[in-house]
Automatic annotation (TrEMBL):
Name of the protein this chain belongs to: AI-2E family transporter
Record-level GO BP terms: transmembrane transport
Topology of this chain in the membrane: Multi-pass membrane protein
Keywords: Cell membrane, Membrane, Transmembrane, Transmembrane helix, Transport
Membrane spanning residue stretches: 7-27, 33-55, 76-97, 165-191, 238-257, 269-287, 294-313, 325-355
Localization of this protein: Cell membrane
InterPro entries: AI-2E-like (IPR002549)
Keyword Transmembrane helix part of the UniProt annotation: yes
Cellular component aspect of the GO annotation: plasma membrane
Domain of life: Bacteria
Family the entry assigns: Belongs to the autoinducer-2 exporter (AI-2E) (TC 2.A.86) family.
Length: 386
């Protein structure tokens, strides 16, 4: 009887696979709708993870050293972590936005002068060729008309994209509502995070054996540890690089020191190429004031970037995450191609966790085969990952 039993599970899987392939566009559409609907909750979970890095040690401090606040340790820690997070965002906006607007206004004023100086330089360079020199000197650009056309083009483009003022209001309202939902969901997760742990263990006890539950828990803990190390390491590295850049610019008397230092530090969160993105923008802004100072800034940034990449980053991020440099490069290239900046940022901790788990798996297999001593399991895995 068992020999002729119909494999219903296999049949259902095959039917589901065929339906998935035949209705692939519709499935993608539904996945997109579900993703857009769940995006505020996903972002809220990410925000809760980041805030928990601030909240967790603060809550332990209140419970250990402030008996009067022991019962209110969780609400106090959540409130303080939110204020710290929002304060950092506000400070970044205050430092960057005003000076960015000022530099754009200065750029608009100085472009005609730079073009005129370039015309004089080129005409002197080609003075032995009168026809070329006359062509260069005859160039006359109406900058006011050009800027008006650019402004009008951008305005019409924005209006064409939004179609009406109602679309603007709808977009702003939707973004505000999503931000509020994200914040509320993050607070709810932080306030009752033990509930989610209990739900996880209840589900595991219902559907998994103890051995499989332990393995799954170990995998999740490894991923959590990898993300924690990466976020803390990247933020620390960005703070150090931003401070070095700001202080160095003050020493060399370069303009926009607080803004460019902050911009370089923030963009440095993007692995490997982030500081160069911020540095490129900063060099452009310094160029609007003085081309020679822009050259000084570019040389200075290259020096501190090399110091940060070869001395600071390996000690702060590399050792904590435990992913070899060749794999970091591969992850950044592949992650950037698949998901842009998010792929670069998220790819490293994911790859680090996978690398550590695979290393531990190989160590266990080598121990079982008698190729390694049995007492060196976890330590050997960690050393191989480093």
């Amino acid at each position: 009887m068992n020999k002729h039993r119909i494999p219903w599970t296999l049949i259902l899987v095959l039917v589901a696979a065929v339906l998935f392939i035949l209705n692939f566009p519709a499935v993608l559409k539904w996945i997109g709708l579900l993703w857009n609907a769940a995006l505020p909750l996903i972002l809220g979970g990410c925000l809760a993870f980041v805030l928990n890095l601030i909240m967790d040690p603060m809550e332990h401090w209140f419970r250990r050293y402030s008996p009067a606040f022991e019962k209110k340790a969780r609400p106090l820690a959540i409130t303080i972590s939110l204020f710290i997070f929002l304060g950092i965002i506000t400070l970044l906006c205050i430092l960057v936005l005003p000076q960015l607007v000022e530099s754009i206004q200065l750029l608009v004023k100085t472009i005609p002068g730079y073009v005129k100086d370039l015309q004089v330089f080129l005409s002197n360079l080609f003075k032995d060729h009168p026809q070329i020199a006359d062509s260069i000197n005859s160039l006359n650009i109406d900058w006011n008309s050009m800027f008006q056309k650019i402004t009008g083009f951008l305005s019409s483009g924005v209006q064409g994209a939004l179609n009406s003022a109602f679309s603007v209001v709808t977009s702003i309202t939707s973004a505000t509502i999503n931000s509020i939902i994200m914040l509320i969901f993050a607070i709810y997760i932080l306030a009752d995070k033990e509930r989610f742990v209990r739900i996880y263990h209840r589900l595991c006890s219902l559907y998994l054996t103890k051995e499989k539950e332990a393995r799954l828990t170990h995998i999740l803990v490894t991923f959590d540890s990898s993300f924690r190390s990466f976020v803390i390491g990247q933020c620390t590295d960005a703070l150090i690089l931003g401070t070095m850049c700001t202080v160095g610019m003050w020493i060399f008397r370069l303009p926009y020191a607080p803004m460019i230092g902050t911009l370089v530090g923030v963009t440095n969160i993007i692995p490997m190429i982030g500081a160069f993105i911020g540095g490129g923008i900063g060099c452009f802004l310094v160029f609007t004031v003085s081309p020679m100072k822009a050259l000084v800034f570019l040389i200075f940034l290259c020096v501190i970037q090399q110091f940060e990449s070869n001395v600071i980053y390996p000690r702060i991020v590399g050792n904590s995450v435990g992913l070899p440099g060749i794999f970091v490069t591969m992850v950044i290239v592949i992650g950037g191609a698949l998901a842009g900046v998010a792929g670069m940022v998220m790819g490293i901790p994911i790859a680090a966790a996978v690398y550590k788990l695979v290393s531990q798996y190989f160590v266990r297999k080598e121990i079982e085969a008698g190729l390694r001593p049995s007492g060196a399991g976890e330590d050997m895995a960690d050393s191989s990952a480093a």
